[in-house]
Design goal:
about 20% strand, Rossmann fold, alpha/beta, about 230 residues, 8 helices
Length: about 230
C-alpha cells in the first residue's frame, strides 16, 4: 500500500493541484459513511488501490477490507470477480474506479452479488476530468447517466452529492497545466508551482462558493453516490 499517496488523498494540501476536489470528496464520503456506518458492519473497497479512505470507515467500527488484483486483503480475479461469497458484505465502496472499468455492467453486478439485500453501495466517479489512464480510462458521466446506470443494475439511489462545479473545475484544469509547466523550471520551479497552487486553489474555493447549486448539481467534477441493493436490475 502506498501510504504517502493514501495520506495525501485523505488530507490534501492547498499546494496540491487537486486540493479542491479531494477535500470535497472527503467531506461527501465522510457524510455518507456516517449515515450508513455501524459497528460490526463489513465493508469491501472494490478496487481499493492505496485505501485512502480506510480511516473514515474504521472510525465507525466498520470491518473494512480492501479488494484489488494484488496487495489487498481480498483478491479480485482477472475476470473481475471478487473472491467472496454471495450476500456476504453490508457495504461496498468504490472510489474513482468506475471510469477505469471496461465492463461497467459486470463491475456493478459483482458489487451487487456480494452485497446482502438492502446493503449499501457508496460510489464516486467523475462527471468531468482530464484523461488519466490507470491503466485505462474509458468514460465520464452526466448525473442522469450515472443514476440511470446504477438503477439499471439494481441499485436504488438515495443520495448523489456533486463535488466541484464548473467555475472551480476550469480553474483546476488551468492550475494543473500551469503547475506542471512551472515544475520544469530549474531550482525555482517547485516553489513557484506551490505558490501558484495556493493562489489558484484560493480562487477556485471562492468560485465554488459563488456557484449556484442548480449549476453544480448537473455539471460536477465528481459525483459521490449512495445506493441500496435490491432493485430489479438484470
Amino acid at each position: 500500500m502506498d501510504t504517502e499517496c493514501a495520506g495525501r488523498r485523505l488530507n490534501p494540501r492547498i499546494t496540491d493541484t487537486d486540493w479542491l476536489v479531494l477535500r470535497g470528496m472527503r467531506s461527501a464520503i465522510a457524510r455518507l459513511a456516517a449515515d450508513v456506518g455501524g459497528s460490526g458492519q463489513r465493508a469491501v473497497d472494490f478496487g481499493c488501490g492505496a485505501q485512502p479512505y480506510r480511516p473514515i470507515f474504521t472510525a465507525h467500527g466498520i470491518d473494512y477490507r480492501g479488494a484489488d488484483f494484488s496487495g489487498a486483503e481480498v483478491r479480485i480475479e482477472a475476470d473481475g470477480r471478487i473472491a467472496l461469497p454471495d450476500a456476504s458484505v453490508d457495504l461496498v465502496l468504490s472510489f474513482q474506479v468506475l471510469e477505469h472499468v471496461r465492463d461497467v455492467g459486470r463491475y456493478l453486478s459483482e458489487a451487487r452479488r456480494i452485497l446482502r439485500r438492502g446493503g449499501w453501495l457508496l460510489l464516486s466517479t467523475h462527471g468531468t476530468w482530464l484523461y488519466h489512464p490507470h491503466p485505462e480510462d474509458h468514460r465520464r458521466w452526466t448525473r442522469a447517466g450515472l443514476l440511470g446506470e446504477l438503477a439499471q443494475q439494481g441499485f436504488a439511489v438515495g443520495a448523489c452529492i456533486p463535488v466541484l462545479g464548473p467555475l472551480a473545475w476550469t480553474t483546476l484544469v488551468r492550475l494543473t497545466c500551469e503547475y506542471h509547466a512551472c515544475r520544469r523550471i530549474p531550482v525555482l520551479g517547485p516553489p513557484l508551482a506551490a505558490a501558484l497552487a495556493l493562489l489558484m486553489n484560493t480562487r477556485g474555493l471562492l468560485e465554488e462558493r459563488l456557484t449556484p447549486a442548480w449549476v453544480r448539481d448537473d455539471n460536477a467534477c465528481v459525483y459521490v453516490t449512495l445506493s441500496r441493493a435490491g432493485g430489479s436490475g438484470p
